[in-house]
Amino acid sequence: AGTNAATLIPGEGIGLEATEAMVEVFDHAEVPVEWDRVEVAPEEEALPEAVMKSFARTGVAVKGPFFTKPRSRKVSLNILLRTQLDLYANVVHTFNMDGVNTRHKDVDLIVVRENTEGEYSGLEHEAVPGVVESLKVISEARSMRIARYGFEYAVRNNRKKVTAVHKANIMKQSDGLFLKCCRKVAEDYPFLDFEAMIVDNTCMQLASRPQQFDVMIMPNLYGNIVTNVATGLVGGPGLFPGMNVGSGGAIFEQGARHAAYSIAGKGVANPTGTILGGVMMLRHLKLERHAKMIEEAVAGLYASGGIRTPDVGGTATTTEFVKAIVARLDD
User: Fold this and answer.
1) Reported pTM
2) Distance from C-alpha of 210 to C-alpha of 230, rounded to nearest angstrom
C-alpha cells in the first residue's frame, strides 16, 4: 500500500508538544502517513493559504489547539477552520479508560456538535453605546444535516439511543427549529430510542448519572460546554480525541480543545487525546492495523497502572510517557 498524505497543524500552547508526541509514536509504528506540516502563527487574522492548499490536497489533518483571548477582536482560528472548510460535525467520544480512576464508571458517550453556526456565527455588534447584540443563527438545512449525521453515526457504531439537547423552552424559534429537525430525522430511525433534553438538565444528569447517555446531538455552544463536562467526568481533557468532519475532509484533535498555556513548554502535557485523535484519522484512512496497534499500546499503558502524566495522577514527563508507549509497540 502507498503512503497517505496528511496535514499537521501544531497549533499553540501544548499543541506543539502533543503533536510532536503523536508524530514520534506514529513514526515508531511505521504508519504509512507523510505529514505536511503547516505552521500557523497565533497572530494570523485569516486562515493562511498554505493551510487551505495543504488540506485541499490531503483531505485530512491533525491539529493542536488555538487559543483566542476573550478581549481579542479577531475571529478564532478554530472557528475559521471549521467554517471555511465546512467541517460541520464535531464528534467527541468519552469513556472510562481502564486504569484511570474516576468517580463515575461505565460511561461511554458520544457528543455530536453542530460546528458551523448557532452562537458561533460571529455576528455581534453594538446596537447603541453600551448595548451589544449577538446573533444566534440556526438554519433548517444545517440542523437537518447534523441530526442526520448523528443518527447515521449511531447506526454505524451500534448505538441504541440518541438524545437531542436544546433550550427550546426559552429560545422557542431557534432551538425550536433545531429540535423540530431532530424529531423529524428521528422518525426515519424507529429502532433507535430518541429523547429530547433541555441543556441545563442535561448538565445535571451528566454530573449525577452519565451512564444514561449514548449519542447526544446539539447546537454549537451547548456542544462546547457538554464536551468539556463529558471529558471532565472520565479523566479530563488530555485523554480523549475529537474529530471535525465535513464533505471536504476531516480534522482530528484533542476532544476538549484546551491550549493549556499554564503547562505549555514544561514537558508535562498529556498527549493521549492527540495521539488517539491521530488513531481516529488512521481509521478514517482505513489503516485499521496501525490504528489498533497504537490504540492498544496506549490502553495497555493506562491499564497497567504504569507511567502517566500529572493530569491523571502520575509524575511522568511527556517524553517519558511517549517512550513507554513506544516500548509497548516494540513488545
Assistant:
1) 0.89
2) 8
